């Protein structure tokens, strides 16, 4: 029995796919890959470019575009291999160097990326993206001045690129050019008013420039736009502390630590605020955290022979406040030891306070406030000669340290050096410490 023949139309349909596939050229697959890339069908694009390469393995654009697709699929190692081949076939393709540099930077190979961006610029000196990317890589390896030059060139070529203004502002901050960074952040805000990072960046620069009110306004906006920004909370807390809004600062430090609990500077700042608000125990805990995170007595006999007896000295000296104002916490954490020492002293732990102040001075031998505060405590312990030595060091480091002159004057007078003591009190008054004049009236005339 004869089997029925397939209808002619059906037979034709079965043959069409094979015929069509056979008739497609490398160009067809390449164009298909471009179309699929534009529609974000990167998997389909990858297959299309691979077919184009199979049919024509010497076509550099196929390798280049497949590299772009792989990069969009986060396969930067594979992308680099395709860019390598594209460059091998066509060593004058500036975009291939640029794209290879991007993939290398995604793998944190910034020095190799830098070479690719530089080659891309040599081949096409008018491409702003190459300067921008080279600036980013230079930033990553701390070549900040080179990065600044690259960002400026990118802006010259493309004045509307918001990302470059922001990157240049950040680079200026790294070069301590906080004033220069302000126009860049302002430009970003003008072009994109909802970009929280620009408000945060400008707020940080204003903080460094001691414009704490302006800083808080910018940081308020940054936090409104991005409530989870730990750094913005930290700097707003710092600015509030500078304005003596310790309760407001405390809330921001709490939030900053909740969002990022490994910022030792935030613990230091919170400890400082707690101390100012009378929570010395909490302050000491925070200072300890700041110190430990990622880190690592004189019995000289004294005879009081002047009119300033021991009780009078204690009374006058104890009215002097140590200079404990929040500042930037340095990498060695000397400020945290200092502040913890102040808190311990307020809790009556003079021995612990001296230990912390010793460590603070060891870490920062130019810390005038630490010498002065240690001198106050030594004087309270009866070690007046040790106290004088500390006051001497404080004055040597800061010749306008009026409180140090005042306390040294009191102590010298109490030890019988009436002339030297009164001269010190006079100097303290001259420098603006007005209580010195009351002491002068009482004991120097």
Automatic annotation (TrEMBL):
GO cellular component labels: cell outer membrane
Classification via InterPro entries: TPR-like_helical_dom_sf, TPR_rpt, Ycf3
Organism expressing this protein natively: Spirosoma agri
Start-end of each TPR repeat: 26-59, 60-93, 94-127, 128-161, 162-195, 196-229, 334-367, 368-401
Pfam families in the cross-refs: TPR_1, TPR_11, TPR_8
SUPFAM superfamilies: TPR-like
Keywords noted in UniProt: Repeat, Signal, TPR repeat
Cleavable signal peptide: 1-22
Gene3D superfamilies: Tetratricopeptide repeat domain (1.25.40.10)
One BP annotation, GO: receptor-mediated virion attachment to host cell
UniProt name for this protein: Tetratricopeptide repeat protein
């Amino acid at each position: 029995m004869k089997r029925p023949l397939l209808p002619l139309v059906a037979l034709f349909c079965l043959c069409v796919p094979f015929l069509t596939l056979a008739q497609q050229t490398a160009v067809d697959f390449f164009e298909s890959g471009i179309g699929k890339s534009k529609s974000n069908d990167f998997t389909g694009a990858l297959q299309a470019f691979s077919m184009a390469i199979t049919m024509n393995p010497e076509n550099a654009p196929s390798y280049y575009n497949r590299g772009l697709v792989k990069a969009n699929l986060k396969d930067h190692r594979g992308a680099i291999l395709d860019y390598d081949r594209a460059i091998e076939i066509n060593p004058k393709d500036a975009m291939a160097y640029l794209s290879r540099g991007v993939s290398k930077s995604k793998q944190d190979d910034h020095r190799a990326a830098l070479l690719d961006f530089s080659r891309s610029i040599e081949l096409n000196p008018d491409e702003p993206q190459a300067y921008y990317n080279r600036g980013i890589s230079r930033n990553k390896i701390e070549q900040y001045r080179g990065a600044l030059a690259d960002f400026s060139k990118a802006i010259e070529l493309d004045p509307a690129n918001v990302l470059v203004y922001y990157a240049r502002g950040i680079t200026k901050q790294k070069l301590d050019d906080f004033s220069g960074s302000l126009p860049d952040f302002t430009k970003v805000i003008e072009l994109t008013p909802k970009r929280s990072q620009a408000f945060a960046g400008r707020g940080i620069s204003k903080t460094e420039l001691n414009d704490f009110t302006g800083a808080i306004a910018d940081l308020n906006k940054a936090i409104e736009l991005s409530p989870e920004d730990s750094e913005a909370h930290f700097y707003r807390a710092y600015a509030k502390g500078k304005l003596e809004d310790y309760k407001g600062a405390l809330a921001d430090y709490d939030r900053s630590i909740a969002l990022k609990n490994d910022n030792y500077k935030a613990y230091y700042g919170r400890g400082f605020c707690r101390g100012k608000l009378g929570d010395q125990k909490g302050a000491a805990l925070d200072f300890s955290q700041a110190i430990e995170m990622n880190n690592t007595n004189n019995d000289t006999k004294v005879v009081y022979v002047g009119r300033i007896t021991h009780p009078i000295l204690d009374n006058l000296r104890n009215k002097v406040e140590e200079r404990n104002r929040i500042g930037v916490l340095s990498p060695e954490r000397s400020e945290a030891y200092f502040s913890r020492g102040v808190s311990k002293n307020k809790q009556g732990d003079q021995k612990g306070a001296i230990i912390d102040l010793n460590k603070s001075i060891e870490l920062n031998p130019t810390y005038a406030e630490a010498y002065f505060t240690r001198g106050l405590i030594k004087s309270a312990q009866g070690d007046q000669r040790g106290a004088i030595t500390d006051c001497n060091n404080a004055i040597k480091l800061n010749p306008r340290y009026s409180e140090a002159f005042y306390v040294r004057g009191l102590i010298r007078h109490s030890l019988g050096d009436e002339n030297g003591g009164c001269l010190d009190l006079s100097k303290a008054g001259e420098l603006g410490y007005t209580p010195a004049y009351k002491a002068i009236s009482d004991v120097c005339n």
